[in-house]
Amino acid sequence: MCKRISIMLISLMLYFFDVFGDNKLEVANNTVEISAGGKKICIYKYKEVPFKPYIKEFYTPSGLQILEDAPPDHLHHHGIMFAVSVNGVNFWEEKANSSGMQAHLDFNLINPIDLTGKINYSVFCEELDWNAPDGKVLIKEAREIRCGYWSQKTANVIFWKTNLKNPSNDKVELGGNHYFGLGVRLLTTPIEKVKIITNFEENLENVRGDEYLRTSPWCALTLENEKGSFSVLLVDLKSSVRYPARWFTMRVPFVYVSATRNLWKENLVIPPGGEATFETAIVVWDGLKSEEEMIDAVREIQEMK
């Protein structure tokens, strides 16, 4: 989908793209904002970021913003972000002179709508270099974000696709801690008000405290706090390396979920010129959804792909 259409001038001014007066993709000097029907769905921050571009805000259809960005307890937690280590360089943490940096290069294509499925998406694709502290490019990424309102389910949806390519003549190894991957920092919620739902679990593993790993095609959470109640569904897509994902979850002292690839136990080797793809759908509803409703949404998402 990421065709090469350079739009370097977007860093100089603001653009608006309207489709049928409903979907809107708005690019500013350091953010991309996607909305539908006049309601914000997400804000993606690609410049003036400490170490990596990420989704800063994600909204339910009623307008509840469900993410935490750079909270005091973990300043390197940014909404929805993707990070692993590459050849031992840590791209998850954000430490001067030792952590890697994901550098935004360009947007290849900005397409206000995609009518190939049941959801009208706004779509953008981004090129990034993953740089070591000395500036060496360790790996190149093509990132595709599709975002829209799923009217049949009264839900907002994000599809995040990362394709990593090894540009070197030597192998690269992806590794990291047990939570490295596509990470989502949700609103802090009392543990008794956070429910984790999966339809089946393989090799459930307690790492420490309330930190668990479980293997499943999908993982969902329902949360209820002083700001409201909402449900989040994450679906691993079959294009992903090491499908299905090994989900990291924790509820206390904060709520976090990650789509991991078990890199902490087995590094992923990408040969020279090789590639690895990671693709996840994230659905958010207002209110508390049932397991049956989650399973129905998973089935439809898998059929879309």
Structural overview:
There is one protein chain. By secondary structure, the protein is mainly beta. It has one domain: Distorted Sandwich (Beta-galactosidase, Chain A, domain 5). The protein contains 1 helix and 23 strands. The two termini are 13 Å apart.
What distinguishing features does this structure have?
mainly beta, 305 residues, 1 helix, single chain, 23 strands, 5% helix
Which helices and strands occur, and which strands form pairs?
Blueprint: E1 15-19, E2 23-27, E3 31-36, E4 39-45, E5 54-58, E6 80-83, E7 85-86, E8 89-90, E9 101-114, E10 120-131, E11 137-150, E12 155-165, E13 172-175, E14 181-186, E15 194-197, E16 202-208, E17 211-215, E18 218-225, E19 228-236, E20 246-250, E21 255-260, E22 268-270, E23 275-286, H1 291-304
Judged by helices, strands and strand pairing, the structural class is: mainly beta
- Under CATH at level 1, the class stands as Mainly Beta
Assign a percent range to the helix content: under 10%
In CATH terms, what is the fold-level topology?
Beta-galactosidase, Chain A, domain 5
pLDDT averaged residue by residue: 91
Strand order of the largest sheet: 9-10-11-12-23-19-18-15
Number of helices: 1
Q: Which shape, going by the Cα principal axes?
A: globular
Count of distinct structural domains: 1
Q: Order of SSEs, N→C?
A: EEEEEEEEEEEEEEEEEEEEEEEH
Report how far apart the termini are: 13 Å
* Strand portion: over 45%
- Largest β sheet strand count, sense and barrel closure: 8 strands, antiparallel
| Uncertain ranges | 4-21
Under the CATH scheme, the architecture is Distorted Sandwich
Q: What is the alpha-carbon Rg in Å? A: 18 Å
Strand tally is: 23
